[in-house]
Amino acid sequence: MSKSTISTFELFALIPDAETARLYLESRLWPNGVTCPTCAGQERITNRKGDFYRCNRCETTFTVRTGTIFERSHVPLHKWVYAMYLVVTARKGISSMQLAKEIGVTQKTAWFMLQRLREACSEKMDKLWGLVEVDECFVGGKEANKHESRKLRMGRGAVGKTAVIGLRERGGRTLAFPVENTDKECLQGAVLDNVEIGSQIMTDEATGYTGLDGLFYSHDTVAHSAGEYRRDAVHTNGIESVWALLKRGIYGTWHHISAKHTGRYVNEVTFRLNAGNVANHTLARLDSFIRAVDGQRLTYKRLTA
């Protein structure tokens, strides 16, 4: 086995069927032994038929799927593990059509699986600190390319698109999420909520960031409109590379993402840059993904509401 990655062939040898997948997931989600998802107890648990467990303390019957994105899914667990492997190793993501072909399910099922996996990618992290690059982008189809019945006829540029703000520590973590607009209140509120006071902020010359110096930050800008993209250590190239990955995924893999689900697609991209970073061994990235699925149940009703 490689020191940095694991091939598809090696993954299939490691987890060939649903039973080995169940044991693999249990060892990752319950490293200290079987744990009740309701009361977190470990002492009074007995085995039941199949892969069920019974907590005699709170009278809960459960499996390793309970309380995770796998709950009430009829897809075998080894297919779920392979889907996670594909998500963390595909630099530009994987489409529901491709996943359906890879694991032998319908496209609708594959789409639901991928949305559940993206839900698990929504990491809860401490505030960013140090040198933090901040920028925004707009996700959505071009007005000129839309069908006549879907055109908004309100101009070009950001019209009809979803605004996404991104924050990236220089050489560290990345955070991105959709915002209602790109005015001063919204952009600076996002910085205040997610960056430690005293950090050094780097942005372009967008007016929404004007005044950050007065909010206990050190603020430097680059003037993109004047053709300036780097001034010594001052630049936003790191966060702009995140937008390049996101848009390559949209153009080349997903083709279209709705405003409603934009946040989940953005989460997938940032997860691959953080816990799923290619600098880590593939199995370590897969373990990070498995730990993230706990407590992230997503029902089809809520997804499509």
Set down the secondary structure blueprint.
Layout (H helix, E strand, L loop, with lengths): L7 H7 L3 H12 L15 E3 L5 E3 L4 E3 L14 H13 L6 H8 L3 H14 L10 E9 L22 E8 L4 E6 L4 H11 L5 E5 L13 E5 L14 H18 L7 H12 L8 H11 L7 H5 L1
Parallel strand pairs: 4-7, 7-8
Antiparallel strand pairs: 1-2, 2-3, 4-5, 5-6
Helix pairs in contact: 2-3, 3-9, 4-5, 5-8
As residue ranges, the low-confidence spans are none
Radius of gyration: 22 Å
Beta-strand residue percentage? 5-15%
Enumerate the strands of the largest sheet in spatial order, edge to edge or round the barrel.
6-5-4-7-8
Following the backbone from N to C, one meets helices and strands in this order, namely HHEEEHHHEEEHEEHHHH
Q: Please give the number of β-strands.
A: 8
Number of helices: 10
User: What value does the average pLDDT take?
Assistant: 91
Taken from the alpha-carbon principal axes, the silhouette is globular
Described by strand count, sense and barrel closure, the largest sheet is: 5 strands, mixed
State the helicity in percent bands: 25-40%
Give me the secondary-structure category: alpha/beta
Count the domains. 2
N-to-C CA distance? 44 Å
Please characterize this protein's 3D structure.
The protein has 305 residues and is of the alpha/beta class. It has two domains: 8-123 and 276-304, no CATH class; 131-261, Ribonuclease H-like superfamily/Ribonuclease H (Nucleotidyltransferase, domain 5). Helices cover 36% and strands 14% of the residues. The protein has ten helices and eight strands. It has a five-stranded mixed β-sheet, with helices on both faces. A hairpin with a 4-residue loop joins strand 5 and strand 6. Helix 2 packs across helix 3 (77-89) and helix 5 (107-120) crosses helix 8. The protein is globular and about 70 Å long.
